[in-house]
Amino acid sequence: MANPRFNKQTTNVRGTVSRVKKRNGSKINDFEELGRVDSEKAYTKTGKKNLKAEKKRIVKKLNA
Question: pLDDT-derived band of residue 44, with 50, 70 and 90 as boundaries?
Answer without folding.
Answer: very high
